[in-house]
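Pilot study result, target chain (175 residues):
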Amino acid sequence: MSKPFSLTISDTGIAEMIFNKPPVNAFDSAGWFAIANEIEALGKNDQVRVIIIAAEGKGFCAGVDIKELQADASKITAVNKGNYDTFKAIHRNEKPVIVAVHGFVLGGGIGISGAADIIVASECATFAVPEVDRGAMGGGAHLQRMFPVQKVRYMYFTGEGIDAQEAYRLGAVEK
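Predicted structure:
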């Protein structure tokens, strides 16, 4: 299986992980584990000074590849573990982690963003938790790292997203 990202490390120690799993950068359990393992390894790599996570395509990350779960519901445990490992690898990394988001930032994309040290966003970025319409409460803890609790509640009660300008106004986005 190919990894759902490309990776480069510059001579100046900038590691760039670029998600490239069309059409929406939604990852199956193996993809989440590959991301987590690579981010953890980058944190231990003496040649790396900073880690940047970005994406190709229509949006940053749509989260979990639901096709895997539709085919085998028992995969939910592996998917959740892969998500947890990814967020932990970012949040507890020895190196600073910057996420550069664009388009949609959903589900696991919220977790990645909330775990990161710095978020920069394209003007077209939108943060949302559409999983609430399906009875899931995925990214609540990660949203609370980014937005005030009342805004998080609003997002969960309404299913509405926050655009990049509002995220900047609320202090979640650096630029």
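One observation from the pilot: The CA atoms of residues 86 and 144 lie 18 Å apart. A full batch analysis is planned for the follow-on phase.
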